Structure to design on (368 residues):
């Protein structure tokens, strides 16, 4: 009997370690690894997941917002944490929790070093974001010139790292642009480093960048995000899924031809009789409503069963005709079968959205 007979997201720790080993295989022994745990660790949790990463030799963590970093500190994790989208009003909070800001422009740098000085800090670690082509955030050359003039006076901070963000490193069609970004990063980061009497960490590669450009651009550190969770831009079979969304069968009933299932009578039975299983999961838990009406299949007792009718807020129904199913049996919404990639293709989206859509009310269970 499955002891976790409730809706949950199962986090497979051995598969996390397996995927981490895969990405480490591209790197030199002294290259550091940063793992992104923003968006609730891509759905994997924040505190416990960060502790797992800390135990497995990760050097840095990164989040989007200060509240995510605070949660990591409250979990007792000591690793350095970069906050990518801090917001100037949150700078004192970052310092209080020993979180390290990404500073994308001169105004942000000036504001943070002023706040750090007010709080008596000296050499507080900050991270300088360079714009090499994304044109979202980051210093360009002219503003970088202005930054170098500020540095001698900014004793309250120290540049811990310099980094940039790839636009399309997973797509061979854009390899020329990716190589242009690498060259721009080399030029801009070297220019900034020439105005320092120390050497900051440089990092550029993301998950697909590690797989495809590690030889020429791994620098001092790499940033691992979706790759850790099973997404390869080279060959998906090389990696393993790390998250399994599972839910129990609440009831199984026989529905006869001509009858309908669910809201709006959207599920129509067209065979003499069908066996319908109701599951304890719905769109409020992260099962997208566009998977309704047989567009997707979930896995139960080794068989795939299509959805029928509209997915409800807290429940959904699958057609288990011809399958031996009873209440309490566990159904896999995504994992090995179907995968998050299959569901993403059905929805016309990316695996990130599937993982980050799993609601907070769904417990995360870590298995080893």
């Amino acid at each position: 009997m499955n002891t976790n007979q409730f809706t949950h997201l199962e986090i497979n720790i051995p598969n996390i370690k397996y995927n981490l080993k895969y990405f480490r295989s591209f790197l030199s022994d002294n290259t550091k690894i940063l793992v992104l745990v923003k968006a609730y660790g891509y759905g994997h949790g924040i505190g416990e997941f960060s502790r797992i990463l800390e135990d497995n030799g990760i050097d840095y963590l990164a989040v989007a917002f200060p509240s995510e970093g605070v949660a990591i500190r409250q979990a007792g994790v000591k690793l350095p944490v970069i906050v990518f989208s801090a917001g100037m009003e949150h700078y004192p909070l970052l310092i209080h929790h020993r979180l390290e800001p990404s500073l994308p422009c001169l105004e942000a740098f000036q504001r943070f070093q002023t706040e750090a000085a007010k709080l008596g800090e000296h050499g507080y670690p900050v991270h300088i974001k360079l714009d090499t082509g994304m044109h979202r955030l980051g210093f360009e050359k002219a503003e970088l010139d202005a930054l170098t003039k500020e540095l001698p006076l900014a004793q309250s901070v120290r540049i811990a790292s310099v980094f940039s963000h790839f636009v399309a490193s997973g797509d061979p069609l854009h390899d020329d642009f990716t190589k242009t970004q690498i060259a721009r990063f080399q030029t801009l980061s070297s220019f900034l480093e020439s105005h320092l009497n120390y050497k900051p960490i440089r990092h550029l590669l993301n998950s697909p960048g590690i797989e495809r450009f590690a030889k020429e651009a791994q620098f001092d550190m790499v940033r691992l995000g979706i790759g850790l969770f099973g997404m390869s831009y080279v060959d998906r079979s090389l990696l393993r899924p790390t998250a399994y969304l599972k839910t129990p069968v609440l009831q199984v009933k026989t529905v006869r031809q001509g009858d309908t299932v669910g809201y709006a009578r959207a599920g129509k039975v067209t065979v003499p009789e069908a066996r319908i299983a109701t599951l304890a999961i719905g769109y409020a838990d992260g099962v997208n409503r566009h998977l309704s009406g047989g567009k997707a299949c979930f896995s139960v007792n080794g068989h795939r069963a299509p959805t029928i009718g509209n997915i409800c807020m807290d429940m959904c129904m699958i057609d288990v005709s011809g399958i031996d199913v009873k209440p309490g049996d566990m159904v896999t919404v995504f994992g090995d079968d179907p995968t998050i990639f299959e569901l993403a293709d059905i929805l016309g989206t990316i695996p990130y959205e599937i993982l980050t859509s799993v609601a907070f009310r769904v417990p995360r269970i870590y298995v080893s």
